[in-house]
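> call design_seq(struct)
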């Protein structure tokens, strides 16, 4: 891939292990509020339900069906409601503390730091394009110790548009002063990252972290971040 000079990364679950960090954060909040004792709810069941609800809400926000405030109001409220607990103030407590507390946990995806060092040694220019909230995207990079690897960091909130829409890719490439034919995206979301990049017209490496095993002809995909070295 001789032409590639600019590498754009998705952040959550591609480099920054959102699933693990969210699990640890919710477990702490769950314990602090004595949810098991008060409501006889098993944490693992609670977390599994939250994960399903949250993933669905993020799909809706990605597709423009809901906004950020709707997601923030409903992900914990709907989870508690599933267990028969109709308590908006409790849900608000979880939501308010979640975004701050999650930044205490900054686990990276296995192999992320090694890969970033490798790519930097090859003189690639590295960038972030995230669908996450602006108020936490840069802090995730700083607190996890990876911010210095990146020339630019684009969060969807800064342009009020989320992947897979082409405008966020256009904005990020303009910010990076990068051309399409010298750029590639690495991400784990089939719609936001793969289809978004393909429709915009830049190359993509799909991080198949959930073992979706895509059958698309010619698609570059990996199961572990270290495998990117075979392409770059």
């Amino acid at each position: 891939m001789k032409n590639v000079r600019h590498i754009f990364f998705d952040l959550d679950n591609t480099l920054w292990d959102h699933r693990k960090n969210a699990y640890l954060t919710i477990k702490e909040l769950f314990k602090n509020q004595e949810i098991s004792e008060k409501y006889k709810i098993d944490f693992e069941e609670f977390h599994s339900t939250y994960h399903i609800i949250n993933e669905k809400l993020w799909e809706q926000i990605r597709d423009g069906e809901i906004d950020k405030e709707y997601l923030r109001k409903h992900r914990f409220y709907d989870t508690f409601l599933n267990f028969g607990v109709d308590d908006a103030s409790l849900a608000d407590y979880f939501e308010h503390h979640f975004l701050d507390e999650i930044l205490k946990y900054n686990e990276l995806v296995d192999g992320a730091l090694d890969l970033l060092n490798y790519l930097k040694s090859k003189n690639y220019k590295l960038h972030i394009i995230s669908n996450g909230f602006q108020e936490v995207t840069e802090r995730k990079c700083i607190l996890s110790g990876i911010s210095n690897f990146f020339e630019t960091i684009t969060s969807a909130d800064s342009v009020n548009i989320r992947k897979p829409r082409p405008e966020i890719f256009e904005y990020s490439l303009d910010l990076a002063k990068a051309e399409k034919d010298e750029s590639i995206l690495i991400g784990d979301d089939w719609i936001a990252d793969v289809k978004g990049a393909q429709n915009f017209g830049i190359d993509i490496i799909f991080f198949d972290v959930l073992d979706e095993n895509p059958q698309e002809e010619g698609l570059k995909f990996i199961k572990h971040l270290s495998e990117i070295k075979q392409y770059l």
